[in-house]
Every structure is written in structure tokens, then in C-alpha cells.
Amino acid sequence: MTLRIQRQLVNVLAMLAVLLLLTGVLGLASWAERPLVHADPLRRVDAIVSLGGGVLDAETPSPTTALRLLPGLRLFKKGYGRVIILTGGNPAEPKIPESEVMARVATDLGVPASSLVIEREASN
Q: Whole-model pTM above 0.90?
């Protein structure tokens, strides 16, 4: 009986490995997600929201945060929004909220501080 269960478990794991291989190597995941992606044409909005995703230190956003912040800054610079809402606390290090690090980067890149709304509490 246990040999039969072991064989079934091995078969299930093998099928899972093949599925993961196919979706990663053959690009089936991107093909399968196409119907789920919807892109509206760009238009002017009241606010652009950039979500935090971690920081390396008080001056440096994590790569995830930077990848979230930079498109918002580009849209702002092109005139698509009047303000940028920067959101993100930092449960691991509450003295360094992600939103404040993002605000430093934004002002360094020429965004006026008056155009930033900084939310310092969100954890997820």
C-alpha cells in the first residue's frame, strides 16, 4: 500500500515539474495571461499612486520600490497627474518609512515637494 502511495506522489511531483518547466521555458505563462491584461490609453488623472516595496537604507529604495516609483515619476513629469501619492511604511524599520525614501528620490529628480502626498503607515 505504501509503495502505491509513493508512486502516486512521484507521478504528481513529476507532472508538476513538467508543468513548471513548460510554463517557464516555453513562455506559456505570458501567453495565458494575455487575455487578463487590459491597458487603457493614458489620460490626465488627479493623482498618481506609487506603492512602496522595501528600502535598502534611508536614502536608497529597493529595486522593487524603484521599479514602482520611476513610472509614476515619468507620468508626473509628462503632465498626467497633479500629485503623486507615495505610500509605504516600514514594519521592519519604522523609523525609515518607504514613502519618505521615495519622496527623497522624487525631489532629487526634480518633483516639487508640494506635489507629493506621503503616507507613512501602510504595511501591505
A: no
